[in-house]
Amino acid sequence: MPVLDLQSTLYGPRILALLTNAPANALPSVWQILWRSAPIRVATDGAANNLVAPCTIELAKTAPDRVLPLPSLISGDFDSISTSTRKFFEASGVELVLTEDQDETDLTKLFRIVSTRFSSDFDGIVVLGGLGGRFDHTLATINSLINMAEVVRKPIWVLDAYNAVTVLPANASTQVHLPPSIKKLLPGACGVMPIVQRPTKVTMTGFRWNLENAEIAFGGLISSSNQLAVSEDNPYLEIRPSEPVILSMEVDWSHY
């Protein structure tokens, strides 16, 4: 049975940090800490615009504790990156990978690249941003997670200012390990949501309101505003959906 461990993803030494183009207030407040601690760092082209200032040598002279390491690579169709940003990272020796396919989002294409380039070098991905901002972008992020699950084959958590979100696979029981040490980050609110346009049934335990082979659908029952009910004796959620579903958990980053 697959086991997802949020603690290992947030605190582990082999994490890939992927920065997407997102409003500053939609990013987790600790995104710079996660970026610094990740041995592999990548960004979509639009997100690169927000990395120039914290990566500059000038900042290193005045506020070295605020300097961010350069990304390992930047990828996209480069319609969102400014000319000055592109020149800055080219001069800094950062690899820029042009992906012109317009049938996939920059996030989807970047998932493909990292799964090819770095697959043996990381144990999970934290996507910084990707939620909040434009609603169509949020849905596109979820769609990328569904489409790329079999390509990446490693845990992917999307983090924003308030949430940790992942997609759970169809026709498999997945356990989510939430030991007491990670519970300080989780106030308890959570949800299990259908997303594909097919009938979805789910059995789930570890919640205040569990479900047993229940059909969930927009226009019908969805498991929003649920509560985590894991304990020290049994620190696991277990979810078995017939189709991919979204698991979201509220996060209080002040306790990170």
Automatic annotation (TrEMBL):
Record flagged with keyword ATP-binding: yes
Keywords: ATP-binding, Kinase, Nucleotide-binding, Transferase
GO molecular function, one term: kinase activity
Record-annotated Thiamin pyrophosphokinase thiamin-binding domain positions: 172-245
Lineage: superkingdom: Eukaryota
InterPro entries referenced in this protein's UniProt entry, alphabetically: Thi_PPkinase, Thiamin_PyroPKinase_B1-bd, TPK_B1-bd_sf, TPK_catalytic, TPK_catalytic_sf
Biological processes annotated in GO: thiamine diphosphate biosynthetic process; thiamine metabolic process
Protein name per its UniProtKB record: Thiamine diphosphokinase
Naturally occurring in which organism (per UniProt): Panagrellus redivivus
